[in-house]
What we know:
Largest sheet: 7 strands, mixed
Order of helices and strands: HHHHHEEHHEHHEHEEHEHHEEHHHH
Structural class: alpha+beta
Mean pLDDT: 80
Low-confidence stretches: 114-120, 386-395
Number of strands: 9
Amino acid sequence: MENPVLSSILTITAYAPIVLFTESLRVQRTMVASILTPRSIAPAITGCAKDFHRLWHLDDAQLLGNFMDEHAASVTSVKHGSSFPLQNQTVLQLGGVLRRDMGIAGAIVPYEPVVGKSFQTRRETVVHLSFAIPHNERRGNDGYCWLQGVCWTVTFLEFAVPIALASYMAIWRHFTGVFLMIAISLSVLILAVLRSSTHPIIANQSEISKFCKDTATGLSTLDVHVIADHWNEGNLNVVCGYTSHLHALTNIPFQVSRPRLLLWAGRGLATVILLQAASLASLIGDKSNAWLSLSWLALYILMLAPPWILNAYHPESAYENYAATLTKVPPIRFSCRRAALVFISRLPSSTQAYVGKWAWTNVFMPDNTRRKLWQAQVDELDLLTFEEKAPGVQGQHPSKKNDPEYLKSKTLLREASAAYHHPQVLQPLLAYKRSVGLCSASASI
Length: 445
């Protein structure tokens, strides 16, 4: 007699794989990882109906940029004071430069959570800071040749195991299961061809190579880019580096070495996704073959593990062809937006005679009298106290001892200074300054 509980479980779980076809991110991230580095492992991919049109007419700018046709993030340059839409958004997300978490766990908090009644209602702002530390020479394999071999071995297993399962199912005439297993093997094969035959083309390579050999003495070529989905957001992603490095990463689209191959790979994956979706849909309500969809789901989950392990062990693989190593700092939580802006303004950057020091903040605050007064107070405090080597603000201007606005600015500067001198920020900042020639190997801030 059939067990009604087991029958109900099989009926319900047969629908579980269909839910995966509402996500589109898996296809894009997997293709981008395959293009960026040979040290990648492809998971099983899924996609929804709208992916078919995107993949059939795929181009490199769309794939590496805004695949989902969402509102593009924006970038403002501290050096140039300009703002522009973000390019290569997927590349930055894959490498962990674009982070959207609010930094609750493991964050740097350079202020007391309860400072006073006026501070309790202020919106916290989280800064995700990264440093683009240049390579003095182009990197070789960095001792990771064996890792590339491991990636190809795992890829072979991901191709061979579904083929073996498909053969077993064919013997027992479960042809729907055969199609599901073949779909997985075909997706792995297409991504392996893409990984071995393409690579990203990054702009400004000759200029980047020149800057990698020289230093930035006098801050002549350094910049800071601030990235956000919108300028009222509580998450700010900040990247420091050479101007050419940052513009190649955020302002000039990456290209793929063989765009025709990318186009046909996209069409091949579109066909695989269509075959996979049709096979899973045909199993809905079929209790006798529910184990086929569950087998596909189990294999799908297992194939998510190797890429996760690789990214945890070798997270910088997304930037192997980039002329800098991106060092990330834990999230820094500030009590308000202005404290975060003060902190960003003190990061190493060049100055332009025709661009105001605070021109980049136009996207955050209107350029009115109130803002100019606040900027003047911050600059005055900076001259008096921020250059001290000890963290925090020690002195006080005698003529403004009881000025409330001055005291507020002083509190914000104390917060920014505490973050600036925090060990988890100070150590990577010093390493960055040494790499661009701003201080000697034994110097400190």
